[in-house]
Specification:
The structure holds 2 protein chains of 2 kinds. By secondary structure, chain A is an alpha/beta fold. Helices cover 24% and strands 24% of the residues of chain A. In chain A, the strands form 2 sheets. A 9-stranded mixed sheet of chain A has the order 2-1-3-4-11-10-9-6-7, sandwiched between helices. By secondary structure, chain B is an alpha+beta fold. Chain B has one domain (2-77): Mth169, Chain: A. Chain B is elongated. The model of chain B has no long low-confidence stretch (mean pLDDT 93). The chains are: A alpha/beta, B alpha+beta. At the A-B interface, loops of A face helix 1 of B.
Amino acid sequence: MKTAIIVFPGSNCDLDAFNAILQCGGEAEYVWHMERELEGFDAVILPGGFSYGDYLRCGAIARFSPIMEAVKKFADSGRPVLGICNGFQILTEAGLLPGTLLRNKNLKFICKGTFLKVESTCTPFTSMIEKGRILKIPVAHGDGNYFVDNSTLKDLEENNQIVFRYSSPNGDTSSLFNPNGSISNIAGVSNLRGNVLGMMPHPERVVNVLTGGTDGSFIFRSLFSMLEGVIASEAVNS
Amino acid sequence: MKAKVFVTLKKGIADPQGFAVRNALDSMGFFGVKEVRIGKLIELETRDGIEITAETVEEMCRSLFANTIMEDFSFQFQGEEK
């Protein structure tokens, strides 16, 4: 079970993602953005950071990196892809996820702990978490204000694509608990198929009690148990 | 050959930057301004002897300069308006 951590010029959460994978019992390998292949990998993570200095728009230039063709193919084949923070922005720019991320409503860079309500367990990253569970995972971004038009928002709701919403510690998802102005408090969305997830909060930063909690490990452990199931069923079928 | 590309937030999308600047104008005493919206100006200059068409610039806008979920774009070649 090997996870590729894509490294763009300006990625800065790649090391945390690598360690989080290891800490949660997986195997990880860095893949430089100039590569063109993702053979031998079972999952892909696009980590946070400031790829290409956020020039033009966050993620706008990284989406044209050579590796992105391979990421698209990987996603189209139904295998799991997770974009965290800048990785989320890159996935929306690449058209692998709906919507876009605008400047935070209050114009500030927000770096703090947030509570997320798990709204969908139809993704490999949330399949082991009970629906409605509250996870404490921090955000750190200047452009995390998720936006889609109203008809797309309706589609997202109907198709269970809203995976996380910002909430109170008790699960209240009213606008009081919206840190950045995101439409409908959305903190994470998936594609229609559910195998591609983008989220602004950083689960890789909370996999150790020494550094603020372990709620992020739910996401990586879900991924691993899904992959184990896939590998086991492939072994039975072959 | 030169072109100017203008990228602006779509109507209906809040522009907190523009709002902050409008407030600054208010505090300076320029009360006449109702709304400020901030966009980007991108200037292009082609390599010597190379001409580019409106279709090419449009393609650049759609694929790179603007995110059409949240932004509109327009462009003009030097000296003309499109």
